[in-house]
Specification:
By secondary structure, the chain is mainly beta. The chain contains no helices and 6 strands. Strand 3 and strand 4 form a beta hairpin.
């Protein structure tokens, strides 16, 4: 499902600002299996709408931090996004590598999935 939200408010937000989803703001690397590696596709109208584009994230379910970097600054890596602006809860399986096996033509019960 497409990931987008509206209603972001704050001081001096602008169209060129960047927001990224990280485990911890200012630390680590971009998230694997998240649209644009967690970096939003656009911030519109002073942050009123934020979207990661049309591609749905497939990262592991869990709670991530929304981290902000102002327009005009170097916003290339996770360490550049030091301002924590809130939480993003991504609903889905965690961990993602929960392998199960079913045999074709037979009843199959999948139990003990985590997430």
């Amino acid at each position: 499902q497409r990931c987008a939200f509206q209603g972001i408010t704050g001081e001096l937000l602008s169209h060129g600002d960047l927001i990224i989803a990280l485990d911890t703001c200012g630390q680590g690397h971009r998230l694997p299996r998240f649209s644009s590696a967690g970096l939003v596709a656009s911030v519109v109208a002073s942050g009123a709408e934020v979207t990661w584009g049309a591609v749905a994230p497939t990262a592991a379910g869990g709670e991530y931090r929304l981290c902000w970097c102002a327009a005009g600054f170097n916003c290339a890596e996770g360490m550049d996004f030091v301002v924590d602006m809130g939480a993003l809860t991504l609903i889905g399986a965690s961990p993602q590598y929960q392998d199960r096996t079913c045999v074709s033509g037979q009843s199959c019960l999948i139990a003990s999935l985590e997430g």
